[in-house]
Task: structure prediction
Amino acid sequence: MREKKIGILCIQESHLTHKHEAQIEVLYSRRLKVFNSRDPFHPGNSAGVAFVINKEMINTTDAEITKIVLGRALAMSIKWHNDKCITILNIYALNDLTKHPDFWDLISKTWLEKDLPQADFVLGDFNLTEEALDRAPDTWRSLYPMSRLFTFYSNTNTYSHLDWIYMAPQHKRNTHHWESCTTTIPSDHKMVLVRFIPQNAPFIGNQCWTWPLSLMNEKKLFNNISDLGSTMQQQMTHQLTHRSKASNPQKTWEEFKSNITAMAKKTTKEHLHKIRIRTKQLEEDIKHTLENETHNYTCK
Result:
């Protein structure tokens, strides 16, 4: 969540027991808040839906949780920007498609009985497909009508788009950076990400630059810095007895810091350029594979 800067993580098949929740609270309560709905019969082995909130980004004080269907449907209303709240419905639908009508009827009935606000987002693992192209007409599909996207890979080599994100029409223009990526924890589902930026959100400019940790093993860069440092030391030694407004240790030190920062930024830019090229190549290969009609795959 820290790496991807995720504010709200919606999990399906959480399989969290009360003991698991207590352990998470002890270990991560400073940074994370977990709201879980367990399966009433097999809490550690079946179903379960959860919200994981990044407390470093979002205030969880006023979060309201409503358990719609235990282990299958969980709603949350939470402040997102200033005094505005958003309501999210997290779904893990049944595998048996014949039970879906009753499942959704129960959700609708419970939603009305509890007088919940209109959902801003309905998302999760719906365990069914609809569109012929990738089996899913969610908001991502409306934005990318000609692209394929599979989020589930079964052990029988079937590919499906089972994980959807629906949203209220007024929010469509405020969503950006759609992404589907493999999770660090092994899973047969990909994680689907989207950034939601409210219309009146403040503009956040460039943050303070920090030295990338990836450069700590860059020998060529550190050799150049060492040479520059040696030159700086010689200059500062000379300036102790030949000091002026234009030439003094403070000015030399400032120039040294500016120079090594520029060197680090240039090296970082070169590294990122190589990474972006390689990433783009891989993405193009994946896209070509998915869009190739002769590719031998089966859609669930």
Residues 249-291 form the longest helix (43 residues). Confidence is low (pLDDT under 50) at residues 132-137, 293-300. The longest strand covers residues 73-81. Helices lie at 18-28, 100-113, 139-143, 219-239, 249-291.
